[in-house]
Amino acid sequence: MDQRELLARAAHLDAGDALAPLREAFHMPEGMVYLDGNSLGLMPKAVPARLQAVAHQEWSEGLIRSWSNAGWFDLPMAVGDRIAPVIGAGPGEVAVGDSTSVNLFKCLAAALHLRPGRTVILAEANNFPTDIYMAQGLAALVPGVRIEFLEEGQTVAQRVHDQVAVVLLSHVDYRTAVVRDMERINREARAGGALVLWDLSHTAGAVHCDLRGSGSDLAVGCTYKYLNGGPGAPAYCWIRAELMEQVRQPLAGWMGHAAPFGFPRDYAPAPGARRMVCGTPQVLSLSALDEALKIWGGVDLAALFAKSRVMTDFFIEAVEALCAGHGLQLRVPRDAAARGSHVSFDLPQGFEVMQALAARGVIGDFRAPATMRFGFAPMYLRFADVARAAVLLRDIVDTREWDQPRFRVRGKVT
Ligand SMILES: *Cc1c(COP(=O)(O)O)cnc(C)c1O
How far away, in angstroms, is 17 Cα from ligand 1 center? Predict the structure, then answer.
C-alpha cells in the first residue's frame, strides 16, 4: 500500500462511517491528530458550559442547598447509571468517586472479606503498576495477606488454589492491548473458589464488555480515558448485585452510610453500591463527567467497537507498509478481536520518534522501555487522521527527523 492508496482508502472509510458525526461533540485542537484518547480523552464541547453552570448557579447561588436541589448528593450513583450500559452493568450497580487506585483498594479488601479464611491476592505480574502497588499496600496492612503473581503465559486455572481469595487482572492490557476472555477466566477462578476483580480502565468505551453476562464479580475503572471525563475524573466500581449485600468495604465513610444525616455512632452500609462511596463526592469533576457521559446515550456500541477494530487494523497495515525496514515491532495482537483500541510498536528510539511526531501535531505516548503507543478513540477519530499519522511516522523514520537533542528531553509525564 503506497501513500496515495492509503489516503484513498481512508477517504472511503470515512465516507462510510455512520459514527462520524459524533466527532462534532468534541473539541479537537486545530491541526492535531490526537492518538492519546486512551490516556486522556478529548474534552466534550458541552463540559465548559456545565462547569460554568455548576460554579455560577449551583455553587455560588445554591450553596449548601445544592446538595439536594442540584442533585449533588446523588451524583455518584447517577453518573454510575450512565456508565453502566457501556460495561454491561445494571442500573444502581455502579458507584463513582475517588481514583481507580482507591477503588482497587476498596474492592480488593471487600473481596478478601467475601472469602474469609483465604489470604492470597493472585495479581497479574504485568498489570499497570498502581494495581499491584495498591495490592501490596493492602497486603502490608492486613496480617497474613500476601500476593502471588500470575506470570505472562500462565492461566488462572493453573494458578488458582484454595488460598486465593481474589484474582486481579486488567481486561485490556495497557501495553500489549491484549483482551482477556472474561467469561472463561471468571469460570476458572470460580472453579477454584476465588473472585475476580477486573480493571476496565482500557476497556470502557473502547471494547465490548458484559460484566453481568460474563459472570463477573467485581470491577473498577477510570473515566478520563475513552470516557472523556477530564483530567483526574473520578473512577467507578461495580460489584455483582448478588454479592453486594455482604460487602464490607474498608473505607467506610459517612457518605456510604445507610443514614449519613442521622449521624449514628456506628457504621452501617447504605443498601447496594452506594456503600462504596467514601467521603463527600467530588462535585466539580463528577459534574464534568456527567456531562461527558451524556454523549453515550444514543451511541450504537457494537458499531463503535467495530470501528475501533477496523481503525486499528488500518493503522497496523499502514505503518507496516510505509515504515517497512525501520525495525518497528508490533506489540499488539494481529487479530483485531483479541485487541483493545490502541496499537503499540516497539522501537529502540521510540521516545524520540514520539517526540518528533508530537512536534508535527500527532500526539501519542511512550511507555518505557521502548513502546510507542497510539490510542484510537473510535468516537472522534477519522480514518484520515490515522492515515496522516502513518505518513508522518514514515517521514520521521525515513529522514531521521527524530535524531535531534530537543527530542531527547524527558518530561515528568510520558
Ligand atoms: C489508567 C489506569 C489506572 C489509573 O489509576 P488512577 O488511580 O485513576 O490514576 C489504573 N489501572 C489501569 C489498568 C489503568 O490503565
Answer: 31
Rounded distance, CA 396 to CA 354, Å? 10
Interval between CA 126 and ligand 1 midpoint (Å): 13
Q: What is the mean pLDDT of each run of 10 residues along the chain (414 residues)?
A: 94 98 97 96 98 98 97 98 98 98 98 98 97 98 97 97 98 96 98 98 98 98 98 98 96 97 96 98 98 96 98 98 96 97 97 97 94 97 98 97 94 79
From the CB of 222, is ligand 1 less than 6 Å away?
Answer: yes
pTM higher than the cut 0.90: yes
Identify which of 215, 209, 216, 246 has the alpha carbon closest to the alpha carbon of residue 340.
209
List where CATH 3.90.1150.10 sits in the chain: 3-30+300-408
Ligand 1: distance of its center to the CA of 16 in Å? 34
Please name the residue whose Cα sits nearest to atom 13 of ligand 1.
Answer: 128
- Side-chain-side CA neighbours of 265 within 13 Å: the count stands at 0
> Domain 3-30+300-408, what fold?
Aspartate Aminotransferase, domain 1 (3.90.1150)
- Structurally, at CATH architecture level, domain 49-296 sits in 3-Layer(aba) Sandwich (3.40)
DSSP tag of 376: -
Cβ–ligand 1 contact at 100 (below 6 Å) = yes
